[in-house]
């Protein structure tokens, strides 16, 4: 499959057209960013590691019957994906209090939740991805009521797959974000599942293995990413 024109470039990925209108090439960059791009650094091999972890996790979801856009890895940093009509919202599932949830509610980071928390956010770098709810989504026509319900259903199904998967590797899935798009009349999980978009802590020590190592200047960012891959059994 030939990579065509650049369709979109974000902080951590590039998306290219192909000769197949239903297929795109997703390229993972070595760029690490935080705070809406205000903090930025190039980390050699980050793109390759994220590409491999994403492919592994997407394949695990697909094996569990969850529709995903990932098709196959085509190079060290690139994967073929389905061409989705992306919704302008993202879902966040939280199993443990951390990040913005701790700041918003004045809770101590690491507080266990009796049940997962689900939140919607509007995708807008300029606005800082503000938190929204289903009434905003329906009022502005960003998705139908059926699609809202489907996003919630799929998000919790993803949680049911990922939580035990990471626990088997000695990791706690603290939280993660998902994006969705339309494909052939149905909703599909898109974007990525990597340490850039989820929080993962060591089950025993609480050590942060994810992008918070970059956000909080904890050091050894790529070593944390590699450790996640090793514990999952990903061929890095």
TrEMBL record:
GO annotations of cellular component type: cytosol
Gene3D superfamilies named among the record's database cross-references: ATP-grasp fold, B domain (3.30.470.20), Phosphorylase Kinase, domain 1 (3.30.200.20)
Record EC number: 6.3.2.6
Pathway where this protein functions: Purine metabolism; IMP biosynthesis via de novo pathway; 5-amino-1-(5-phospho-D-ribosyl)imidazole-4-carboxamide from 5-amino-1-(5-phospho-D-ribosyl)imidazole-4-carboxylate: step 1/2
Keywords: ATP-binding, Ligase, Nucleotide-binding, Purine biosynthesis
Pfam family of the protein (one): SAICAR_synt
Enzyme class: ligase
UniProt keyword annotation of Transmembrane helix present: no
Catalytic reaction annotation: 5-amino-1-(5-phospho-D-ribosyl)imidazole-4-carboxylate + L-aspartate + ATP = (2S)-2-[5-amino-1-(5-phospho-beta-D-ribosyl)imidazole-4-carboxamido]succinate + ADP + phosphate + 2 H(+)
One term of GO molecular function: ATP binding
PROSITE patterns: SAICAR_SYNTHETASE_1 (PS01057), SAICAR_SYNTHETASE_2 (PS01058)
Transmembrane parts of this sequence: none
Entry keyword annotation includes Transport: no
One GO process term, biological-process aspect: 'de novo' IMP biosynthetic process
Record-annotated SAICAR synthetase/ADE2 N-terminal domain positions: 6-231
Family under the similarity heading: Belongs to the SAICAR synthetase family.
Protein's recorded name: Phosphoribosylaminoimidazole-succinocarboxamide synthase
Source organism: Thiohalorhabdus denitrificans
Gene from which the chain derives: purC
């Amino acid at each position: 499959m030939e990579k065509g024109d650049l369709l979109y470039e974000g902080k951590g990925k590039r998306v290219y057209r192909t000769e197949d209108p239903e297929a795109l090439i997703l390229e993972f960059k070595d760029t690490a960013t935080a705070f809406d791009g205000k903090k930025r650094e190039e980390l050699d091999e980050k793109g390759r590691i994220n590409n491999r972890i994403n492919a592994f996790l997407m394949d695990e979801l697909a094996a569990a019957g969850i529709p995903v856009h990932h098709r196959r890895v085509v190079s060290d940093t690139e994967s073929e994906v389905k061409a989705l009509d992306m919704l302008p919202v993202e879902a966040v599932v939280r199993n443990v209090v951390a990040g913005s949830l701790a700041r918003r509610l004045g809770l101590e980071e690491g507080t266990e939740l009796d049940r997962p928390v689900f939140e919607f956010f509007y995708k807008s770098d300029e606005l800082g991805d503000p938190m929204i709810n289903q009434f905003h989504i329906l009022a502005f026509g960003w998705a139908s009521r059926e699609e809202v319900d489907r996003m919630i259903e799929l998000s919790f199904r993803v949680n049911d797959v990922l939580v035990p998967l990471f626990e088997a590797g000695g990791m706690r899935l603290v939280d993660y974000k998902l994006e969705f798009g339309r494909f052939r009349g149905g909703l599909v999980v898109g974007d990525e599942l990597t340490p850039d978009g989820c929080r993962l802590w060591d089950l025993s020590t609480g050590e942060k293995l994810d992008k918070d190592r970059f956000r909080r200047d904890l050091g050894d960012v790529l070593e944390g990413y590699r450790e996640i891959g090793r514990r999952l059994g990903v061929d890095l």
